[in-house]
Structures are given as C-alpha cells and as structure tokens.
Amino acid sequence: MATPLYQHHLLTDFISLLAALALLSLPARYTGAAQAAHWVSSWTASPQAVWGKDFPFPTHIPDGLNQQTLRQVARISLGGKRLRIVLSNAYGQTPLTLGKASVALAGDRGAVDMGSLHLLTFGGKTTAAIPPGAPLVSDPVDLAVPALASLAVSVYLPGPTPTTTFHWDARQTSWIAVGDQSQAENISINQPVTARTLLSAVLVDAPRTGGTVAVIGDSVTDGNGATMDANARWPDFLARRLAPRGVAVINAGISGARLLSDGMGANALARFDRDAIHQAGVRSVIVLLGINDISWPGTLYDPLGPLPSADGLIAGYRQLITRAHTGGIRIIGATLPPFEGALPGTPLDNYYSADKDALRRRVNTWIRESHAFDAVIDFDALLRDPARPARLKPAFDSGDHLHPGNAGNRAMADAIDLELLAPPRR
C-alpha cells in the first residue's frame, strides 16, 4: 500500500505532466515568445488627480470627453521589438470605457505614419473598460521601434467620460478631435491641450536591456522651464546618453510634487512604488525631491502649512532608501538646486525666504555627507551661481529663478556619471 508521502509524489508528478502537456498544446505566441519577452518601462507620465476650480492653476483639459478622440505623443527612451501601452484610471470613480485605441510612429502636429499604425487590443478585444483606480495594459503590439522614437497613441471615448486622472505639465501638445479618428492619418483638430490624460506608460520588449532608471521628482524633473514639444527635460537628455548602453529612463516627475505631503499629486512616499520601483525593469532610482516641501508653506499653495524639519525630510528620504533596497534597487540622491528670487512678479513671489534656504542647505549637507544613498548627484553645486550661491547660474536659469532652462537641463544630464546607472558595454 502506498504511503501518504508516496501518494503525494505521484500526485505532484501527475500534475507536472499535465502542465507540461498543456504547455505543449498552447500556440507558440503563448509559450516560447512569452518566455523570451523582457518588458521594460521606456516612458511614463505619473498619474495625478484632477483638482478643483479653486486651485490656483487651471487643469488645461476639459471636464469630460464624449464621442471624441484623444491623440497624444510620447518619445520613448529605449527601443524594442514589440511594445505595450498602459492607460490609467487611477483616480476615476467609475469604469472608463474605451471604444478603440491605436499606436503608431508619430509624424508632425499629430499626424501618424500609417504604415506603422496598429489597433490596440486588450485580451484580444479592441474595446475595454478600465475599473476605477486601475491601470489597463494592452496586448503586445508587433511594432519594432528604435530608441528615442516618438509614438502617437490615439484613444476614442464613445460615451461621456469624466476626466479625473491626468498629468498636468506634459510639456507636449496633445489633440482632442470629434468622433472616432483613432485610425486617421491627420486628425481634424478640435482642441490642442498641454496636459495628458489616460496615457501613463509605454513598455518595450528589449531582452538585452540594461534595465530602467526611474527619476522621481517635482517640476524641475517634470520639465517646467523646458521648451514645449522639444523633449528638453533633463531626463530626456539623460535618455539620449543611456540609450546606446541599452538602458531606459522614465520620468516620474510631477510639477508641484512633495516628498512628505500631497501637492499637485500624491506625496512621494505614497506614489514611490507605483511610479518608480514597481515600474517594469527598474534597477536604479534618482530622487530629486524636497524643494516644494520647503517652499510651499506660507505661500498661496499652502498658506497655513508649517515649515518641515530637516529631521522630517531626512526620515522621508530614509524611507525611500529602505524601500528601494528592499527590492534590490540602487537609489541615488540629488541635492536641491538654489532658488533665491524664485517666481518673481507672481502670486508666489514669497516662495523663497532665508529660513527656507537655510533648511535646503541643511538637507543638502545630509544628502552629501550621510552616505545613506548609494551615490549622490550634486545638482546644487552644478547649477548655482558662483557669485551668488543661493541663485541659479544665469546661463542655466529658465528665467523664473527656480527651474533650469534647456541649457541647465542638458548640463544636469551631462554631469551624471553613467557608470552609476548603466552596466558597461560589452
């Protein structure tokens, strides 16, 4: 009579045999191709909740869409032999219905290369519903794309669709058109917009990749101050340097973002997993956050908010470090650039004060000297004016004394030692 242990082994062997036979019976697209795929995030736009009419800045998108097509352009970092598109209903309260969606290589002013256009499918279907709070990942698209390619993603929304999830500071023009124009070469433009909605990521199948670098930050990373439609954010320039090494760069910046408190998006401690360490293929994270925690209190943004302590900010950084290391991810800290005289002639001209700058300098000293991060990028030393260290160097200043312009963004990317982020080429 067989012992219970022997019976267990027989049952296990039988289940394994059934599983192997099932795999043999599957089409090739579900077996060898799936096993060989290596999906990495090549582009992202971090989702934000749409704010109310009482917030100082307009949203730059309509309150809702209905029987309209939204076409958005995204320049990826790393190329691949296939791709997937990720859409987000992160802050939706109801399911979001897609009528049809497509992806193609982008042309000029919203046009597409028709020879590259592919309809997106989701579980084999061209229509889909995104549950509240969820993302939606497309099926693989057999479209080979080179590094630094610009893609146009078009989504047709057949019914009333409230815009609850967006990315405010896109630095890229999108287009809203009447009717289903998801497969049109040149859409008839109804309304150009400068914010994103729905589109949150592009994944590429790049099996020999060196992984992805996620950059989590605020408006300096999101690109405020960079030229529109020029891919001139500092992570864009970094992507150009890393693409030949097979390394992707994703931008998890949100203008107005803070480390400890919600701002124009969820605080970094709340969104770190979603926007950085859980993105496909991430091996390294760069953190450039904290200036809005320091500067918002007392301004129109946060009139009654208290100034955070250096210890509180340091505890927040330590949490990000611990969570990255728990996942085996390298984390690099960046010092906070100077901001004296920030936002002159605006309702936020009290953004800077001597007390706030003293706190910034204390935090920077800890970033440099604590050795808590795996490495440090000293953007403060790079960007400050030697003659007036509390201010941005004029050549790097976009003009508002807070955000670097294109030249400053390029200098930031060029100053980074690629060996911190990329394996050497073989």
From TrEMBL:
This is Lysophospholipase L1-like esterase. GO terms for molecular function: hydrolase activity, acting on ester bonds. Residues 215-411 form the SGNH hydrolase-type esterase domain. InterPro entries: GDSL_Rv0518-like, SGNH_hydro, SGNH_hydro_sf. It holds the Pfam family Lipase_GDSL_2.
